[in-house]
Design a protein that fits this description.
The protein is of the alpha/beta class and about 260 residues long. The protein is about 40% helix and about 20% strand. The strands form two sheets. It has an eight-stranded mixed beta sheet, sandwiched between helices. It has a two-stranded antiparallel ribbon with strand order 8-9. Helix 8 links the parallel strand 4 and strand 5.
């Protein structure tokens, strides 16, 4: 299975919903493009829902397949590589612009508005109603401000998921991006394999299941791409706590999951 850079995501999301990609989105994900083409008879999807659970490294996803069973039930799995350094704002900057860190301007842990053309700008130009649902003051709450989309900021992951389901049920939006952070938070305080970290992964899996059920109930007779897209992996430091940010396989190698409903 080929491994793609996370810079390839934006172009394929745009391809899926049949809009022109932003300026820096040069390369797409061939497997995802073919998956959408085959499952929509070339017509593309009507809606996209993206779930962004933070920090699920490929090795974590494989080790805890039993915990992440609903996510693993996805129809398409694609091996991906994060950007360097694999830090949350750097990664989401590349995921949603298609650009390198040098191009979008965030090259270390820094949360600031990205000025270059993005997935969200492309959606606005195509008149696709879009929203971001995220934990307050996190990267996805800050990086893509200033676009003509809606922003919902909540106190924690549970509130984010409840709001996202409410939004899905409203049938108001063409594209919804949903960010959760619990595993990243907990593994920094403990380590990637701790019982608390495993519980956070269980919550991610439950959230994925709830979102999928809401999509199936609310978007009947429409084609929806449901993408579960993480940003980077994790490792355990010599002083025992979890971390990420190094150019090592545990931090760079990730896997993404896709369904068409």
């Amino acid at each position: 299975m080929e491994r793609y850079s996370i810079t390839a995501i934006t172009k394929s999301l745009c391809n899926a919903i049949k809009i022109s990609p932003p300026a820096y989105a040069r390369d797409g994900i061939d497997e995802l493009d073919k998956f959408v083409e085959q499952n929509t008879l070339g017509k593309g999807v009507d809606r996209i829902v993206v779930f962004n659970p933070d920090a699920i490294g490929e090795w974590v996803a494989n080790k805890y397949k039993n915990i992440l069973s609903d996510i693993w039930d996805s129809e398409l799995k694609v091996k991906m590589s994060s950007v360097i350094p694999p830090k949350t704002p750097v990664c989401f900057g590349s995921i949603y612009t298609g650009s390198t860190p040098e191009e979008h301007g965030i090259q270390h842990y820094e949360k600031k508005k990205i000025e270059i053309d993005s997935f969200f700008d492309a959606l606005v130009r195509a008149n696709k109603k879009t929203c971001i649902v995220t934990v307050e003051n996190q990267s996805m709450d800050i990086l893509f401000r200033g676009r003509a989309i809606d922003y919902y900021t909540l106190k924690n992951d549970k509130e984010v998921i409840n709001k996202a389901i409410q939004i899905i049920n409203s049938k108001e939006y063409d594209v919804i991006c949903i960010y959760n952070q619990e595993y990243d938070d907990i593994m920094h305080r403990t380590h990637p394999k701790s019982l608390l970290s495993q519980r956070a992964l269980k919550h991610y899996n439950q959230s994925h299941k709830m979102l999928l059920q809401a999509i199936k109930q609310s978007y009947q007779n429409q084609k929806t791409l449901f993408a579960t897209i993480t940003d980077h992996g994790v490792h355990r430091e010599w002083y025992l706590l979890g971390n990420h940010g190094k150019n090592i396989d545990k931090d760079i190698n990730i896997i993404h999951f896709y369904n068409i409903i």
